[in-house]
## 1
Amino acid sequence: MIDYDKILCDRIRKVQPSGIRKYFDLLQGMEGGISLGIGEPDFVTPWHIRDAGIYSLEKGFTKYSPNAGLTDLRQSISRYMKRRFDLEYAGAGQVLVTVGGSEGLDLAFRCLLEPGDEVIIPTPSFVCYGPLVSMLHGKPVLVETKAENEFRLTAEELKAAVTPRTRAVVLPFPNNPTGGIMGKEDLEALADVLRGTDIMVISDEIYAELTYGQHHISMANIPDMYERTIVINGFSKAYSMTGWRLGYVCAPKPLIAAMTKLHQYAIMCAPTTSQYAAIEALEHGDGDIEAMKEEYDGRRRFLVDGFRRLGLSCFEPKGAFYTFPCISSTGLTSEEFCDRFLQAEHVAVIPGTAFGPGGEGYVRACYAASMKDLGEALERLERFLKTL
Amino acid sequence: MKDHIKLLQLLESDCTLTHDQLAAMTGLSAQEVKAEVKRLEEDGLIRGYRAVVDWDRTDREAVTALIEVKVTPQRGEGFDRVAERIYQYDEVESVYLMSGAFDLTVIISGRSLKEVAHFVGEKLATIEDVTGTATHFILHKYKENHLIFEKREEQQERFVFE
C-alpha cells in the first residue's frame, strides 16, 4: 500500500485548502439559506455573448486555437485596453489569452520566481497569491492594508517590505474582499519606491470594470511603470462569465513570450468556444458592463447603508462587489461571527481572516445577490445582533 | 443620471422596493424619495403598480387576444376618439396606435374564446369608424414585461472558493 503522504511533495502538503469552502458545504444543507459568500456575479452571461459561443459551435469551430489565443480576440483585447484604460498592448506579442485570470497569475509567478524570492502581497486579498508563490518555493511577504487608509497599500508599507530578495509585488485592486482601490496619486507614490528597481508589479485587475465613482487606473499607466507591470485581467467579473474560464495577460513582449512558453506546455490554449464568445463581449458588451455596474451600485449602497444602520462600521467599497463591514463591536472573532450567524440565521458571510492578515474583526458580504436576498439578510442580521 | 429617472428605472424593475431601500440605492434621503415618488404618481409618470401574473399556472380559465383594428380617422381628432371608445371597455388591457398596415392594436382578455369572440363581434367591430378587425389568440406567454414565464433551470453544481 502506498503511503501517499510520503509521495506527495512537501510544498503541496503544506498548502492549506481555502477556508471559505466550509461555509458553502454547511449552507447546502440548510432550509432557506442565503449566501452572501459567493464571489461571483449573480447575472447570467448576457445572451448575445452566449449566442456567439453557441454560434461558433454550430459552425464547428471546436479545434485548438493558437497558443496565445485567437488573433481576432487578441486584437479585440488590444483595442479594449486602449479604449477603456488608455494602455497600448499589441495584439501580436503583448497579449496572452489564459484560462481565467487565475492562470495568468500562476504564469506570472512561475516566470519570475527563483526559490527564496519574495513576493509582496497586500492583504486582506484574494486567497490564491500566497499558495501559488509557496508552490514555487517563493516567499509570500504579507502586508496588511488598513481601514483608516481605505485599504490602500501605502508607499511606506511597501518600502518597509522590500528586501534584496523582492522579485515582485502583487497589486490586487480593485480589491476582493475590501473594495479598496488605488487612485493615481496612490500608484504614483508606490512607483516612486519601485522606479529604478527590478521589482515587477503583478497587477490583478479582474475587477477593473467595477469601480464606483472613479475610473480604474492601472499601474501600467504610471510613467516608467509600463515596463515593470504585468496586467492580469479577464472576462469573469466584467461580463459575468465565470464559468467560461477566460482571462488574459498584457505585458512587455519578453514576458508574454516566456509566459506563452509555459502556457503552451501546460494548457495548450484557452477554450476556443469561450474565445469566440469573448470577442462578442469586447466588441459589443460595453452596455452590459454599464447595466450590471449600475445594478451593483444600487445594491452596494443599500448593503453598506444597512450595516451602518445596524451599528456596524463599514468602509464604503469603491470597487469589486464586496462589502467588508467591521464586526469587532460584537465582541466576536470573525470566525465566531460567521459560524454563529450561519447557524442562527442561515446566512453565509465569510470571515475576513480567510483573506489573510488584517482580516480579523471583519467579514466579507458579497452584494452580487438579489435585492430581496440582501434585504432579507439584513433583517436576519438585525435579529442576530439583538441576540448577542 | 437624474434622480427621477433613476427612481423610475428602479421602480419599473421592482415596484416592491421600499422608500428606505430606494433611498439607500440612490443616495437620496427617505423623505426625498417619498416626496419624489408622490410627485411622480401625481404627475402621472407612474401609472400604477401591478404584479405580473402567469395565469397559466392556475386553474383559472383565461384567454388573451391581440386584435388588429383598422379605423377611419376622424377630422380634427385623428384616432383619439375611436381609441377612447375602445379603451373604455374593462376587457381591454392595452391599446396602441400603430404604424403600418393597420391602425390600432387592442389587447383584450376574457374568460373564454367565446367571450372574446363575442366582444369583438358585438362591441369592437360595431363601433362606427372601425372598418375591419383581425383577431389573434395568444396561445402561450413566454415572456412579459421582461419577465420570463418558463421555469428556468439553475446550474446545480457551482463554486470553488473565491
## 2
Amino acid sequence: MTIIGWAQIALVLGCALLFAVPVGRWLGCLAQGRMGLLTGIDGCVLRAAGVDPARGQGWQGYLLAMLAFNAAGFLLLYGLLRLQGMLPLNPQGFDGIPPYLAFNTAISFVTNTNWQAYSGEAAMSHLSQMTGLAVQNFLSAGTGIALAFAVMRAFAAGGVTQFGNFWVDLTRITLWLLLPGALIASFAFIAMGVPQTLASNVTATTLAGGEQTIVLGPIAFQLAIKHLGTNGGGFFGVNALHPFEGPSALATSLQIILQVVIPFGLCLAFGRIVGDARQGRALLAVMVGFVLVATLAIYAAEAAGNPLHIAAGVSPAQGNMEGKDFRFGLALAALFTATTTGASCGAVNAMIDSFTPLGGLVPMFLIQLGEVLPGGVGSGLYGMLIFALLAVFVAGLMVGRTPEYLGKKVQAREVKLAMLAVLVLPAAILGFAGLSLVLEVSTASLQDAGPHGLSEMLYAFTSAAGNNGSAFGGLTADTPWLNTTLGIAMLAGRFGFVIPVLAIAGSLAAKPRAPEGPGTLPTHGPLFIGLLAGVILILGGLQYLPALALGPIAEHFAMLAGQTF
Amino acid sequence: MLRPLLSLLLGFTLLLGVAVPLGVTALASLTLPERAGGSLIRQGDRVIGSALIGQNFERDRWFHGRPSATSVAPYDAASSAASQLGPTSAVLLAAVKERLAGARNVPADAAAASGSGLDPHISPENAAAQVVRVAQARGLPTPRVAALVEQHVEDREFGLLGEPRVNVLRLNLALDALH
C-alpha cells in the first residue's frame, strides 16, 4: 500500500460523493414529478402510450405492471438472442445463442444481474449487444429506480393507498436521467479511447509478423449505461479489463464514480422526500463506511502479494498481479472491486478469481450482506430501508416499545415481510451452492481443486442471487445445470425480494405519520448508524460464515502453510 | 395494461437500442474518428495494431509484454481471457516458476498473467530488466536502449492515477526506428 494509492482512493470516492449531491437532488425531483417543462414532454409521450400520468397505482397494480413489463422484456431479449443468426448487424456471422444460455442471459439482463456465461466478442452480434442487451441495461436499471421511488413515496405519505405509477416513473427515469447520463459518459469514454463503431473486425499485421484480429463495435454507449445502471455486463469477455473497455486509469475511475453515483444519490433523494435530509445521510454513511473498509481490506490483501509466488522468486513490490492489468494499479483495482460488488454492478477491472484468498473473500461477503452497500440502482436503497426497519425493530425489542421509523409504526406484518425478503438471499445462495457442490453434473464445472473450488461455486450463486454478475471466472458456467439454476437464483434474488418489499410499502403508505415523541429512537445519529451496520452484519452476514470458513478462510491458511492444490 | 407495456417496450427498444446508439456512432465518427475507430496504428496502408492492445513478442530483439492467458495463442484479441487460476493453484505456481526460470526478485508483472490477456503495458522495472538482452540481440549500445526505455516511461495520469508504465508496442516501434 502506498500513500499515492490511498490518495487515488480518496480522490475517486470523494468525486463520487460530490457528484451524488446534484444527482440526488435531481432524483428527488423526478420522484415527485417536479421537473418543469420536462413534465409536459413526458406527459405527451405517456398519453401516446395510453397512460394517464395523473392516475396512481396501489402496490398490487404497481407490482403487476413491473412484473408484466419485465416478463415482456425477457421474451423480447430471449427471441433476439435465439434469432441473432438471421438478424442484421452480425459482421462476424455468429449463430443464434443456444436455448439454455439464452434463457440464462435474458434473465440475467432483465434482473439487472448481467452474469455472463458467454464471452461477448466470441458470441454476440452487434445487434444483440446494442439492441438486446444494452436496452435491458436501461430498462432493468429504470425498473430498480422506479421501485425505489415507490418505496420512498410510501414512507413519505400518510394514509394513502396509491403511491405513483410504474409507467410514469420508468419513463421519467429513462428519459431524464439514464439517457442523458449515458450520452455524456459515452462521449467521455470515446475521448479516452473506447471504440464506438459498427465497423467489422480489423486484422492487423503485428510488428513481430503475426496476425491479430482486433474486435471493434458500438462499445462506448453500452459501457456508459453498464456502469451508470449498475448492470455490469461487458461487451468483452474480460469486461472492464479489456483495453477497449478500460483504456486507462482515468476511464476506470470514471466507471467507479458512475456505478455508485445513483445508489449514493438515492439516499440523499430519500432524505429530501421524507422531509429530513439527515435520514438520507445516515443511510449513506453506512454505505460509504462499508465501502471504505472493504476497499482497504482488499487493497491490503492484494498489496501483500502471494507468498507462494514470492517464495519462488517474484518480487513482493507490486503485490499480486495475476489477473490484473498494469495500467490501473492496485488501489483503483481494490476500489473498483469493492464498489462493483457492493453496488451490485458486477463489472470487473481485475479478475477476482485470482485474488488472494482474503482479497476474494471481501467482495463475496459484500454481496452476501444483501447488496445494500450501496447496492444496485434502486435495489440498494429499498434493500437498505428493509434493514432499517429491522434495525428499529431490534431496538424496539431491547426497550420494549413498538418500533417506529419516520413516524410509521413497524408492526408484525412489516417485520414478517421484511424477514421473508431478507431470507430469500441466503436460501438461494446456500441452497443452490450446497446442492451444486455435491452433484457431479456441476462439480465438473469447477476449475480449481481444494477450498478454492468451493469458493468458485459459492461465489457463482452469491453473485446470481445478489443480482451482481461478477464471477470467479474459472467456473465453466455455460452448462444446462448451471444456466438453469443460476437463472432461477437471479429471479429469486430480484423478484423474491421485490414482492415483499412492495407489500411493505403498501402497508406503510396506508399508515399515518405520527409526530416524534420523547421515546422515539432518532434514526439519523451515530447510535442508529452503528445499530444499522450491526444488523446488516449479523442478519445479513452470519449465516455465510461456515461456508466462508470452508472456502476462502481455509484457503488462506493453506496458502500460508505453503500448500497448493 | 397491454398498450402501455408494448408501446413503451418497443418505443424504448427503438430509441435506446437503435436510434441513439446509431446517432452516437455517427457523431463519434465525425468528431473523434481515430479513437472511436479503435486507436489503430498504421504504417502506410497496413494496420500494425492498436495503441491500446498489447501484442505478442517472443524473440530476443523485442521487449516482451506480460504473460498472456488467451486460449489459442497469446495476445489473441478476438478472445480476451485471463488464467482465472486461484492463489493456491498448483498449475499457476508451476507456470510462474517456468516464467521465472530460476531468477530471483523478478517484477510481478513479468511473472503473472494479465487479466485481459492483452495488457499493452509493463512496469519500468520489467523493461529495465530486458535492456541488456535487447541491446545484445540488436547489436546496439546498452545505454542507447536504456535511454529509449527511459523516454517511453509514461507517468501516472495527471501525476496521480494508475501506475508509471511502458507501452511495449510503442517502445518496440521506436526501437525499430533506431536502425
## 3
Amino acid sequence: MAFYRSHILVSVDPQCLAKGAHDIIDSLHDELVYQGLIDEIQVLETSRLGDPASEGPDLMVYPEGVHYINLNADDIPFLVEEHFLKGRVVEKFQSTKRAVVDEELGAPKPKEMRVVLSNCGKIDPFNIEDYIAEDGYMALAKVVSEMTPEGVIDEVLQSGLRGRGGAGFPTGKKWQFARQNPGEVKYVICNADEGDPGAFMNRRVLESDPHAVVEGMTIAAYAIGATQGYIYCRAEYPLAVKTLNVAIQQAREFGFLGKNILGSDFSFDLEVRMGAGAFVCGEETALMNSIEGRRGEPRPRPPFPAVRGLWGKPSNINNVETYANVPRIVLRGAEWYSSLGTETSKGTKTFALAGDVVNTGLIEVPLGITIREVVYDVGGGIKDGKGFKAVQIGGPAGGCLPTQYLDYPIDYESLRSAGAMMGSGGLVVMDDETCMVDIARFFMDFIQDESCGKCVPCRVGTRRMLDILERICDGKGQESDIDTLEELCREVGSTSLCGLGQGAPNPVATTLKYFRDEYEAHIKEKRCPAKVCKALIEYVIKPDACTGCTVCARNCPVNAITGERRSVHHIDSDICIRCGICMQVCNFNAIEIH
Amino acid sequence: MTMEADRHSRLLDAVQTAVEQFDSNPDELIPILNQVNRSFGYLPPEALEEVSKRLKMPQSRVHSVATFYQMLSTKPLGRHVIQFCESAPCHVVGGREVWQALQDELKISGGETTPDGKWSLITVSCLGVCGVGPVLIIDNEIFGNVTPQQIPDILARYN
C-alpha cells in the first residue's frame, strides 16, 4: 500500500473550476511525474479552501498546512520545484490570512503536543475527503489488508495506550478479554457521555474529527470480532450527534462501514444512541442499560462488559479519546506512541483547562508533564497576578491537589497516589481566594444530585456528607464533623456499587487531607479564611477611609447601612445579606471583609 | 370535537408517530419518549400508557425510564422551556447572578412554570460549552456569555 509524504489538496469549488482548477491539477500531475515525485506526493480534489472569488484557484499542502492562492497553471513547475524539491515555501503565492479565532482551541501553547486534536479545526468534519487527505482510514486499510486481529491487539498493547475515560485500564488488554470471551455476537461501544462539568474535549473531537472515532471503533471491532457498534452520545451534544451521523453515512458510502469493508470479508456497522440527561450514564454498565432502553443504573461488576455486556453479550467499551488514538497508533506504530509519556502512562492526554488561569480552553499534553508546566507554561499562570492554591483534577470525583504537588507528574499512578485521578480531563485551577470547604460542598452537591439512588452508600452517604458540608459552611459545624466526614469518605468509597459513588468522596477526602486547617477554622473559630462562606464573613466599614458619601447606603438592597452624610457609616451585620454590592460601589475602598 | 378529545387524539398521534419512527423497537424506548416529550411538551400518563401498549412492555418499565432522565418530564411544562447550566464553570463566571435575574424576571423558582403557562425554568448539567459561560438554552436556541442585564431582552424575543 502506498504512503505519501505530502498531500496537495486542490479546491474544485465551482468558482475555482471556472478559473482553471483542472488545469492546475493536470499541470501538478505532469510536473510531479517529471520531477520523479509522483510516488511521494498525492494530488487530491477538495471542496472550498479559502475565498474562491478573490483567491481561487487555490490549493493546500499538507502536512505543512501551507495555503497557496491565485495560482495559474504556468506557475506550477516553479512551485513544485521550490516547495517539494527544495523544501522552500513560495511566499509570493502563500495566503497570509488564515487566522481563525477559536475560543476553545487556540494555537498550540508551549509544551503542548497535539495528536488527538491534530485534525480539529483543520479539516471539515462534514467532508470525509478532508479526513482521508489527512491519512484518514489508512490505518483501517492497513488493518484489514495486512494485519490479523491478534496483530492489532498486540500493536495496541505494545503502544501502552490506556483508557482515556479516566480509569486507565490498558486498552489492548480490554480488547484481548473481549476477543477471548466466546460468543457469536459481540459489540463495540463508544462512551461519548462526557458529563463532567467543564470537560468538553470529547465533544470537540466528535464535532471536529468524527471519522477518527469511527475508524478507531472499526479497528477495535476487527480486533475483537464484532459486527455491530454503538456510540452513546449525551443528548446535551446535538451537534456532535449530527456530525457523527453524517460521518457514519459517508463512511458507509465509501465502504469503510457496512458489508465487506474495503473488499475484505470483515463487516461492521455503527449506530448512534442518545441519552436523555443523566450523569451516571457515563458509567459503563449504566450506559449499557441506557442503550438497551432502561433506567441508566449501574450493574454490579463482575461480570465485566467483556464477559457479559450489552444484551448480555461480550462487549468492548472505550471512551472517545481512546478510540481516536487508535488510527494514529496503527499508522505510526506502537513504538512511536510509546516514545511519548512516562514508563507506565504513554501518549498524550487532552484536558479542558478552566478556572483562574490566563489561558483557558482545550489543551493536549504528553503524559508525565508536571502540574506546574500545565498551569504556568500552557495555562500562562494564574489570572490577575494572584497566587496558586490548588488544582482540581479528574472531574467531580477527582481530587484537589495543593502547592506541594505542583512538580508532580500528570500520569495515572502519580495522580492516584496523591488521592486524585486522571478522570476524563477536567482541570480546574484555583487561586488563593478560593475556599476549599466551599469547593468540596459544590462538588458534593453535584454528586448528590446525580446519584442514581440504586445503592444505599452512595444515595444516603453523599446526602449526609453534603448536609455536614453545608452545616460547616453555614458556621454551624460541630467538633465531631471532621471525623464523621472521614468515616463517610471511607465507607462510601469502599462500598458503593459503581465508579460514581466510589469516587464521590475524593474532593472531600483530598481537601480534608491538604486543607484541614480551613475546615478547622470554619468549625472551631467560625471563620472562613478565604472570605467566601457568607455566614462566616462580615462586611465592615473602615472608619478612617469612609468619607460619608452615602453611596453604599443608597445601593444597599436591604437598608443595612446607616450614617449621616459626611460622617462614618455603619453596616448592621444582622440585616446584611453579604451581597457585596457596597464593596463594589465604594469609591474609597473603605469596605473590607472580616 | 371537544378540547379534551382533541388533545387526546393529538397525543395518540404523537405516540404513534414516535413509535413508528423507531420501528416499534423496545430498545429505542428512550428516543421514543424523547420524541413524544418534544412534540407534546411533556409525557402525560395517557402517553406512557399508549407507549407501553404499542411496545408491548409493562407500564412500570416505561414509567421507570420516564422518571429517570432529566430531559423527560412527566409534569406539564410551559410553552418555552429555559434550561440554565448550573455547573461549576458557568457558576464561577457569573452564573449565580444570571440565575437570580431569571428567577426575579419570571417571578418563579427553578423547576416551576409561570401561571400563564408561558415559561418553565429548569436547571441542566454541563452543556459542554464552558468557553462561553454562563450559558442558557431556550427551547433549542443557545445563549452564551449571558449577563443579568441581557435577561429581559432575551426573554422579550419569545411570545
## 4
Amino acid sequence: MSTTLKNTLLFALVGALILLTGVMQSWNSALLILNMGLISAIMAIGVNLQWGFAGLFNVGVMGFVALGGLAVVLVSEPPVTEAWAAGGMRIVLGLLLGAATVVAAVLVNTRMPAGRLRVAVMIAVLIGGFFLYRGVFDPGVDAVEQVNAAASGFLGGLGLPVLLAWPAGGLLAAGAAWLIGKTALGLRSDYLAIATLGIAEIIIAVMKNEDWLARGVKNVVGLPRPLPFEIDLQNDPGFVERAVSLGIDPVTASTLYVKLGYSVLFLVVLLVLLWMAQMALKSPWGRMMRAIRDNEVAAEAMGKDVTRRHLHVFVLGSAICGIAGAMMTTLDGQLTPGSYQPLRFTFLVWVMVIVGGSGNNLGAVLGGFLIWLLWVQVEPIGLFLMQVMTSGLAEDSALRAHMLDSAAHMRLFTMGLILLLVLRFSPRGLIPEK
Amino acid sequence: MDFLNAIVALSNFVLIPAIAYGSQLALGALGVTLIYGILRFSNFAHGDTMAFGSMVTVLVTWWFQSMGISFGPLPTALLALPFGILGCMALVLITDRAVYRFYREQKAKPVILVIVSMGVMFILNGVVRFIIGPDDQRFADGERFIISARDFKEMTGLSEGLAIKTTQGITVVVAVVAVVLLFWFLNRTRTGKSMRAYSDNEDLALLSGINPERVVMYTWLIVAALATVAGTLYGLDKSFKPFVYFQLLLPIFAAAIVGGLGSPLGAIAGGFVIAFSEVTITYAWKKVLVYLLPDALEPSGLVQLLSTDYKFAVSFVILLIVLLFRPTGLFRGKSV
Amino acid sequence: MSGGYENRSNKDATITNTVGKGEFDPHPGTGHPMDTAEAFLVGDSMTGGYGKGPDILHDCTLSVNPGEIAVIVGPNGAGKSTAMKAVFGMLDLRQGSVRLDGEDITNLSPQDRVVRGMGFVPQNNNIFTSLTVEENLEMGAFIRRDDFRETLAQIYDLFPILKDKRRQAAGELSGGQRQQVAVGRALMTQPKVLMLDEPTAGVSPIVMDELFDRIIEVSRTGIPILMVEQNARQALEIADRGYVLVQGANAYTGTGKQLLADPDVRKSFLGG
C-alpha cells in the first residue's frame, strides 16, 4: 500500500468516525468534536515544530494556550473606562517600574565588575525596586478591582474585532516564549523541560490571581464572537424560512450554522498554518533544523548558531499554540483560567504528536483529530463498558455504583495506554517522518 | 517578651511548617534523583507513584479503622504504611517489567524513557482516580497535636501560641529514619555500593560483574518506599488529593535540580531550600514584625511578598537562580 | 524497529542523564570453535569488526603465557585496541577463536570472561570516580562471594599509595594513581590473565616509568599480562612477546628485544 493511500485512508477513517458520531449521537456533538479537533491539530503542529523538527522538549504547552486565551479578552473585550480612571494608570506605571527593576538588575549584573559590591547593589536594586513596584501597583489593583466587582472589576480590553485576537494570541505567546527561550535556551540549552513546566504553572497562577487583568477565577464570560448568536438567527425570519425549507428545526439549524461557521474559520487557519509548516519543513531552514536535531555537535562545528535556531523554532511553535489557544477561547466564548490542566493541555497534545508521528506535519494533524475524538468518546464508551461489565451485579451494589462513577476517569488511563502502545509498537507514529 | 513572642510566631508559622514540608519534598526528590542516577531519566510519573502508594495506605488505613485497629495517639496510617509501600513496590516492579525494561534492552535514548514515563503518568493518574476518586480524602486520626497553641500559651505565658501537629512531628521523625536507612544502605552495603558504582560507570560495573537488572530492581524498590512514605506524610499533613501529587512534581524536580540531580545529599538540601523559600516568601510577616518593630513603624499591610498562589513561581525562580549561578546544583550532581 | 528510538538527539541533561551510561555492546563469538597452538591465552586467527561494519581485524593472532608480558604495538589505527577487545569479546568475530587455559571462550560474553578469570582495564573511564579507592577495589571483587581481604592487602602492598588514599574519592586522584586504582580493581578478582588497554595514555614520562615498574611487579606474581601500548619503544623493552599490528593484521612478531633490534621495525615504527 502506498504511503499516500495509507495516509488518505487514515484521515478517511477519522472522518468516518466523526460522521458516525453525528449519526449515532448528534450532529452538534460531531461538529464540536470537529472544531476542537481542528484546534487540537493546530496545537499539535506547534508542538511538532518544536519536538519533531528541532527536538526541543517543551512541556509548557498549557501556558502558551492560556496566553492565547488571555489575548482574546485583552483584544476583544470593551475597555472598562471607570476601572482605567480608578487605577489603570497606576497599574501600568507599577508594571513599568517592575520591568525597570528587572532591567536595572540585569544591567548591574552585566555592566558592573564582579564582586561584593555588585552583589550588594544588585540586592539593593531588587529589594528597593520590589517595594517601589508594590507600593505603586497594589493600590491601583485594589482600586480597579473595586469597580463593579461583581460584574467587572478588571481593566477590560481594547474592544477590537475578536478575529484580531487570534494573531494577537500568537504574538503574546511568542513574546512569552522569547523571554523563556532567552533565559532557558540562551543560558543552557538543556533546562527547557523543567523550565517550561514551571512557566506554564506560573502563567496559569498569574491568570488565576490577577483579577484586574482578566477577572481571575471569576472568569470572563460572554466574549464577543466572530459569528452571529444562535438566538439572533432564530429571530431572523429569513434564516428560519431557509431552515424550514431544508427540513430542519430552526433551533438546531442555528446551532449547526454557528458551529459550521467556526469549522470553516478554523479550517482556514489550519490549512494556512499547515501549508506554512510544510513549506518550512522543505525549505533550507527546515533541513537545517533537522540537521541540528540529529547531530547538534556536528551542526555547531559547521558554524550553525544552534541556540539561535532553537530560539526561532521555540518562539514559532509557541506562537502556533497561542493562536490555537485564542481560537479555543473564542469557540468557548469565555475565559476560565481554572480549567487549564497540564494533563489536558500539555501532555495530551504530546500524545497527539507522538501518536500521529513526530516530525511529520500531516501526522500531527491526524494525531490531533484522532486523539481528541478518543478523548471525547472514551467516556461514553467507558460508561457503556462499565454497564456491561457490572450488569451481573445487583442494582444497588456499591461496587457497581463505584465503577459507574469512575468511568469518567477511563480517559486518562486510555490516553496513557495509547501512548505506550504506540511508543512500543510503532515508535515513529501513524504517519512517520519521511 | 516581644522578642520571644516574635520567635514563637516565626517558629509556629514558618519554621515548623517549612521543616515538615521540606522533609516531604526531600523524600520525593530523593526518589527522582535515584531514578535519574541509575535509570538515567527524569521520571514524570513520580508524583503519581507517590499518589498510588499513598492511596494504598489510605485504603488500608480505612480498613484498619473499620476493624477498630488503631495506633493509640499516633495515626493509624503509620500501621498501614508498610502495606502501602508493598503495594507501591508491586506497582513499580510491574511497570518496570511491562514498560521500561523493553526500552532498556533496546538501548533507547533516555528522552524516549521520559516520554514513556509521561504515558505511565497518565495511566497511574487514571488508575488512582478510578480507584479512590479525584476528591479530597481524610485519613488522619489519633492525637491532633503534640503541643496545641493553647497549652503552649498556658505553659509559657506568652501571647503567641506554638502548635506542633502530630503529623509534623511524625513527618520529621520518619523522614530522618528513612534518610539514615537510605544512606546506610548506599554507603555501607554491597548492593548499595553496586548501585552507586552502576550509576557512576555502567560499563565498568558490567565488567565488575554487577547485574544491571538487579541494580534497577533495587532502585525501584527503594524509590517505591520513598515515594510512598513521602506521599503518605504529605497526605497526613495536608490531605490526600490525587491531583495535588501531580502538582508536587514541579517543586520536587526543583528540589532535585537545586540540590544537584543524581546527588542524594543534594536532594535533601534542595527539598529544604525550596520549602523554606516557598513558606517565607508567601508568609504574611506582619504577625512577626508587630512584635519586633516599634509601634510607629508597625506595618499596615500583611507584609506578604507574594500571595500563596504563587508558590510555584517561588520554586521556579530559585531553580532559575541556581541554574544561572551554579548549574550543577548545590551538590555537584550529574546535570553538567 | 529500533531505528525509531534513535532519531532525537535531545541533550536535555535535566530530564535525561547520560553520564556513566554504558556504551559497549557485547559481541561474542563466531559460533565455530577452532583448534590453535598451545598457550595460556590465545586470540587465534581473529577476523571481525564492530556490528555489521567492515572487518577491522584480519587473521590476527595474539597469545601470552604465565609470567610473561605481551605487548601490542603499531601505528595509529592499526587495530591494537580492537584486537584486545576481540580477545575480551567486545567485537563481532567472523572467524578465529579465543582460548583461555585450554578452554574455548570464543562464545562467552565479556562478563562471563571476567568470571572465567580475565581481568580487563579499559583505556578510558576505568574507575568509579565518585566511589572511594577502597570501594573501587571492593567493586572489583563484586563477583567473589569469599573473603577478599587478603587480596585487598596484596593490592595495597603492590600499590602502597592506594592504601594511603583509600578513603578518598578515586576521581580526586592524579592520572597515574587512577591507573593504579584501575589495575588494582581488575586484580581484585584474582584473574588468571590481565589485559591493559594503553595504561600509560596521557600520563607524564616519569609516571609512565613508574607504571611500567608496577606492571612488571604484577607480572612477577605470575599473572600473564597482555597490553596495548602507544609508547612502543619503552613497552617493547619490558615485553617478553611483542606484536606489531598493521591494518589489523600481524606484521612482526617476536620477543621485545628481537623487535627492538629488527631494522624494519625500527625504521617503520620506532623512528629509526
